[in-house]
Amino acid sequence: TPEQAARMKKLQEQEKRQKVEFRKRMEQEVSQFIQATGEPRRRFQPMNKIERSILHDVAEVAGLTSFSFGDDEDSRYVMVFKKEFAPSDEELEAYRRGEEWDPARAEERRRLRELAAQQEEAELECGPAPPGPPNDYKDKYRHLIGSDAAKAAARTMEANKAYGC
């Protein structure tokens, strides 16, 4: 019916106006962020998919780096970074896990990884590991066979004379 079509057109125009207004608001916020000297990154409130895509576009036009974080649709948010403070892979991983980025903790993790790599390198320099299995199968089955079951069986074993030599 013509009434439904008119109502639909009115809703679409209203939606378009809201998107334009949202884009203007995001452009103002991004502009303020760029001018804020002591702010390397800014986290925006959770928003829906369309709003996030508009914000990503505004950030890209402004020459900024932006990422979305959060698991479900209701809690996904956008973080915008200035190019000179682009996040490292470790920083991005922390945000993806829902953690706050802590450079001191990241440095500690990096040092621990370096130390583990050095230890591994030192072990490799000592030469290859002796051949053979890494553990003794008897240890694995000790609860079934006991510790001296095999020795007792060997002591009581007698040669089968039926086979003869």
UniProtKB/TrEMBL annotation:
Cross-referenced Pfam families: R3H
Annotated spans, Disordered: 116-140
Gene3D superfamilies: R3H-like domain
Source superkingdom: Eukaryota
Domain R3H: 20-83
GO molecular function, one term: nucleic acid binding
Signal peptide: none
PANTHER family: SPERM ASSOCIATED ANTIGEN 7, SPERM-ASSOCIATED ANTIGEN 7
Protein's UniProt name: SPAG7 protein
Organism: Pomatorhinus ruficollis (streak-breasted scimitar babbler)
